[in-house]
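INFO  loader      accepted 1 record
INFO  loader      residues=217
INFO  predictor   begin
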Amino acid sequence: MMQSMSRRALLKSTALGCSAILTAPMLNLGRYRLFASATTEYSERAVRLVHDSLVIDMLSPLSLNFPLFAKWEADPELFGPEEFKKYQDSGINIFHIAVGTGGPNAYANTLDFVSKWNSFLAGQDERFMRIDSPGDLDRVKKSGKIGIIIGLQNSEHFRTAADVDYFYGLAQRVSQLTYNSRNYMRDGSTDRTNTGRSDFGVTIAGRMNHIGIALDV
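INFO  predictor   done
INFO  writer      dumping tokens
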């Protein structure tokens, strides 16, 4: 049997229903979806910790689309606000953009890599800050810029200890002694042996420690 409902009761019932719909998300108080297409939720504390912390990705080239990055290097103006916003939205403050170089042309290839990065950063100084010293770690987050650490996943370009000084002068701040294959400094990750550092490797690592290039292990 249908029951009659007054206009006042109907309006009150409708208001309560709308209120329940509007407040339903609040039942998940303190949980957030950071991206529209994502289903993962994060606690308020986790979001705040990332927001307040200096976040460094120690192995992340800006793009693995190397032809695209070659265009940015050739003409930094092609890297515009839309591209930059992706890195701002990532929550990462500093990127270590290392790649692996090696082989008979390691010195020339690494010199080319570092030079192109320095050229790109010079053309994008309103958006990026090259990290040259520990003090830059404190300054970059306050600046609103994205920090870039220039580094390599190999050290074959260090032919002598003097080369360590030279590449430090070009702003290299991190270097991994070996990549996959053995070099003059030690065995690589894909070798079947692990004989430790050679005398040359000890010399190079010692010079890196002295001058301020972090030894990536």
